[in-house]
Amino acid sequence: MEETTVDIDTLIDEMDYIPGHFHLDMNLNFETSAPISFQGRDLKLKRESLLYELEFETGSQQNAIQNLLGVFSFYLEEVEQAKEIFLHITQEQPENLNAWANLAYIYDRLNQEQEEVECTEQLSNLMGLDSEDKLQGNHQDRAARCLAEQGYAYAFDIRLINEEEKMEKLTVGLTLYSKALAYGKQIPLEEKRSWYFAMATLHIRLDRVWMNKGEDEKKRLTAFNRTLVLLQQVLKSSNLHYRALAWCYLGMLLERKYSFSTTPLGINDCGYAGTDPLDCFGKAIEVARDNPPVLNRLSKIFHFLGKLEMAMAVCNMALDVIPDPGLNWQAYCMRAKMLIKLYLRDVERVKIGLAEMPDQSNLLGAKVDLEKVIKVHPCLKTYLDLGQVYYYLGVDAMQELFLVDEHALNKALILFAKAMELDLGNVLPELQVLKGKCLWIKNEMLEAMECFKQAIELDDVGSTHRESFRCLMELLLTLFAQKRISVEMLMKEVELWVKKAEEKYPNQQVQQELRLVCRHHTSEVLELSKAMLARGKTELVKLLFETMKCDFNRARLSERSLSF
Description:
Blueprint: H1 2-14, H2 36-54, H3 60-75, H4 79-92, H5 97-109, H6 113-127, H7 137-153, H8 163-183, H9 189-213, H10 217-234, H11 240-256, H12 265-269, H13 277-287, H14 292-304, H15 308-321, H16 329-351, H17 361-376, H18 380-394, H19 406-421, H20 429-441, H21 445-458, H22 467-481, H23 487-504, H24 507-520, H25 522-534, H26 538-549
């Protein structure tokens, strides 16, 4: 047994790379103190993202996704399914190093020693560990594909709670892809272009993190110029999906050129000096014009970029090609999401005097779209979105606590209840917030309070979706004003949940929410502060008063105060 251990250690030390995913330095592979339900939620949501990617990928990138799907299945305690996934890859692609390594790991965990040994021997042969030319020819190509698949995996790591961690994982992914290119001199050009596309995606995500952190221009410039070169190569791909998204990404980069003090050299070197970002977006749409799945993807990107009108137009193009909800439900869901957002944008414009009453036809349009989908593809997201539409139809546009349609509000609660019956339904914070708001309006305030508390508990550390915290603070102060809770209970609850919020959300955003609450409940906050001072609880009082005098940015448009 000791000899075996020495052999394995020696083997690992001599390797230039190690196949498999279970040894990678990803949060995915490390235990966490988070509740099991939270871990499962993160894994399942990432798995859904991967399955979405699988619809678009062909060739070797499919292996990258399928290997990662097997890893997710293993950590979701679906060990047999994980084994079947890895077995399937080894049968379809017998030279896939990661699949053999992952399968060996699974057999080890299942205590199937003979099968594990067979996998390890096969892996050793494929890597050429017993031959003198282990870094030549096919061995190099296998190594390159192995490294590229590992690089791809880092884009889907979980529990990335701060910008530093995101930067680290994205950088490791890019490093592995660069190493793959160094090994893969003989890899076919079209396959390399799929790697270039993945690398460009990682670079764009990393650049966004750097922009958010206000990183020095010099740090960004090299990567920015490299991304332009990568996209230039992807534009030559025979894959329509890659070409369309490459034009879209190019438009995004050209918009970012204004974040530099001088125009990056790569823009001139690649011949894009006179290119307008809108032209790039237009070419992306033109490439994808007859392909609804790619049009839907472009629509999601434009929506993410805040280009709602463009996203809506692309969504309508997809529906013109395939209007059947059963075959193109994604486009109906996407259009509904944008119609809801347009309605909320109108509400905010009315509040600051830039528009008349919001156009409820947007809500009604979203309702029609989602009701078509729910007949053919009922799922958690559809129930959640349709419930949100009924919620907004049931409350006053300007003052959410005013009920205008009790039937609509009851319908929203029914839809939220159906959503909670589904997998992940009870661990989505946004669902708890909407349910809590409905219950508050129906005067079931204690039940509403529990929903808001649960939403805070369910939020990830570093989350920017802090509406649950504001709702809870306003509800507690409302109950106090109505003399339904004592000042002692109010103090205890506020102290506890401010502390929890500071552990979950960025500090400035907690203060921003407290400022909104203080502005709308000044008398209750003053009374609370007096009571806390009398008991020597000065720290929170200081925070409240500092919050009231600080001038932070306004809340995001989609997050409205519940105050009258």
